[in-house]
Amino acid sequence: MQNLNTLTGYECKMASCHDGIQNQDEDGIDCGGSTCKVCVDRALPAEVCDNSVSCGELRINTHAEQGANNPLASHKQSFCEGANLAVRFNHIKPDTQKVDVVVHYHGYSTFRNENALKFNLDASGLNLNKRKNRRPTVAILALGKFVGAECTSSSVGCNKLRYEFPALQTLAGVQNLIDYALKKLADQLHKQKFSVNRLIFTAHGHGGDTVTQLLESEKDNAVNTINEVHMFSATYKPVAPLLSWATKKINNDKAALTGSRSGSSSSSSSSSSMMPDDKLAYMENKGGAFRNFYAVGSAAEEEGRAVTKKLREIKGLTHAWYRSYGARIDQWPRGLRHEDYARFYNPRMLADASTSPSVAEDFNRI
């Protein structure tokens, strides 16, 4: 967008960050782009935001940054202008220093412009209002790089609406984006800095391909760094890396809960000296979680069933936090579309990763 003059009353003024009009390269009215302050939306719906504390959403155009300052430089495309990064935050208090961070890998989008960010936000389920114990949380959604036009219908796995995440294929790339987002948020809230408490990955559709690839390449680093992974109709790739990560997390949790050296030992829950409340506190603050939801009859079903089978073999203390579900899309009166999976399930997982969601109940409520 060009820097156009604005006619106000009878005088012509140069466009600015204080003229009450969305012009220049602004992402909103007098905000965003290369010149103005970051856009902040504090009027989020009640199911997303608790306005009794610092809560809201930043929408940022990282491509206005120069060189290495842009954590998403490899996602830049000529047809996409405007904000390409959303940072939602909730339950941030004046003394908050550590925050849980959710990084969401979105699925396909029917848009190839600035509306793509809004579409994927709506489908993400990044609603932080119901976080258990009102945990301070920051959710990050970066618009991926559109690659659908690069494939042909005869290509394996071709999806004309597909996005990939070259900047977020490694933990170093993810950390770079997190550092950038938390710095922008700290500046906006006039705080010195934030650090990461728990790191949560959520993925929808083919966004799960990048998560699976990252877990495979990072191996033990991913086990030690990522606390939770939640997949929503996202098991298109072989799930061995997901199951390897989950198995190691389960073994670590069992070892901590039973006091044994190996989570694969024969120790039962009765051998643990931890009281039930202590076990719950451990899982919520130090433990892991992996929840998978797939559509029966979809391309994600085969690998989704493999996840379900494996997790059902693992019983014991951590079962509630490591589960997989398959659901038929014609099971509910209003139908469950592919783009609904993260939107309906993710808020439940972000509220409590050990919950047993009732989809029919959610459809009747929403």
Count of alpha and pi helical runs? 9
Shape: globular
Beta percentage is 15-25%
CATH class of the largest domain: Alpha Beta
At a glance:
The protein is of the alpha/beta class. 29% of the residues lie in helices and 20% in strands. It folds into two domains: 1-37, no CATH class; 38-365, Rossmann fold (3-Layer(aba) Sandwich).
Account of the 3D structure:
The protein is an alpha/beta fold and 366 residues long. It folds into two domains: 1-37, no CATH class; 38-365, Rossmann fold (3-Layer(aba) Sandwich). 29% of the residues lie in helices and 20% in strands. The chain has nine helices and 13 strands. The protein has helices at residues 115-124, 171-188, 207-218, 220-225, 240-258, 276-285, 301-313, 340-351, 359-365; strands at residues 6-8, 11-13, 39-41, 54-60, 85-92, 98-105, 137-142, 145-146, 163-164, 195-204, 228-232, 289-296, 322-328. Strands 3-4-5-7-6-10-11-12-13 form a nine-stranded mixed beta sheet, with helices on both faces. Strands 1-2 form a two-stranded antiparallel sheet. The chain has a two-stranded antiparallel ribbon with strand order 8-9. Strand 1 (6-8) and strand 2 form a beta hairpin. Helix 3 (207-218) crosses helix 5 (240-258). It is globular and about 70 Å long. The model is unreliable at 1-13, 262-272 and 359-366 (pLDDT under 50).
